[in-house]
């Protein structure tokens, strides 16, 4: 079985990665994925200037997050790939599903930030969107699962 672990460096993403590693008897290939989120909206109604340094900062953050994941799995002797992709004009969840389909994964494992109220409305929920969009099973880990 192939698993994609959506990893953003958060506590719940770390939980999801550690949980996935515990499934090593069932999973023979891992893809740890960080999606660089959109810096500007998908349909700006006016010209928007985004300094190149913002893109560089996001890329640096992505590399730092993936390095953190590499350290977590450093002692494992598993088939693990790491990938950083830019969401472009897509939502993070749509990009995760796209990468999952391109790589023929059998399950997506992600964390949940347990957003509530206005924060959830404004930021959205990647895990909720994954559940709606994915053609493969999605496992959502909460922080409580790893305590």
- How much is the average pLDDT? 85
Overall domain count: 1
CATH superfamily assignment?
HUPs
CATH topology heading = Rossmann fold
Distance between the first and last residues' Cα:
26 Å
Q: Give the radius of gyration.
A: 15 Å
Name the features.
147 residues; alpha/beta; Rossmann fold; 5-stranded parallel sheet; 5 helices; 39% helix
Outline the structure in words.
The protein has 147 residues and is of the alpha/beta class. It has one domain: HUPs (Rossmann fold, 3-Layer(aba) Sandwich). Helices cover 39% and strands 20% of the residues. The chain is built from five helices and five strands. The chain has helices at 11-21, 52-72, 92-102, 117-123, 126-133; strands at 2-6, 29-36, 80-86, 107-111, 138-141. A five-stranded parallel sheet has the order 3-2-1-4-5, with helices on both faces. α3 (92-102) crosses α5 (126-133). The longest helix has 21 residues, at 52-72. The chain is globular and about 50 Å long. The mean pLDDT is 85.
Topology, pairings included?
Layout: E1 2-6, H1 11-21, E2 29-36, H2 52-72, E3 80-86, H3 92-102, E4 107-111, H4 117-123, H5 126-133, E5 138-141
Parallel strand pairs: 1-2, 1-4, 2-3, 4-5
Helix pairs in contact: 3-5
In short:
This protein is α/β, with parallel strands linked by helices and 147 residues long. Helices cover 39% and strands 20% of the residues. The protein has a single domain (2-146), classed as Rossmann fold (3-Layer(aba) Sandwich), CATH 3.40.50.
């Amino acid at each position: 079985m192939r698993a994609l672990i959506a990893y953003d460096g958060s506590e719940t993403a770390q939980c999801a990665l550690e949980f996935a590693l515990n499934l090593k008897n069932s999973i023979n290939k891992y893809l740890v994925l960080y999606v660089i989120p959109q810096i500007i909206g998908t349909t700006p109604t006016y010209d928007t200037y985004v300094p190149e340094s913002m893109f560089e900062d996001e890329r640096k953050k992505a590399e730092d997050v993936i390095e953190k994941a590499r350290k977590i799995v450093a002692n494992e002797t598993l088939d693990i790939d790491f990938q950083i992709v830019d969401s472009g004009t897509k939502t993070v969840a749509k990009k995760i599903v796209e990468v999952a389909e391109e790589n023929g994964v059998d399950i997506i494992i992600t964390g949940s930030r347990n957003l509530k109220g206005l924060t959830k409305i404004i930021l959205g929920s990647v895990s909720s969107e994954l559940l709606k969009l994915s053609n493969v099973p999605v496992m959502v880990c909460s922080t409580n699962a790893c305590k």
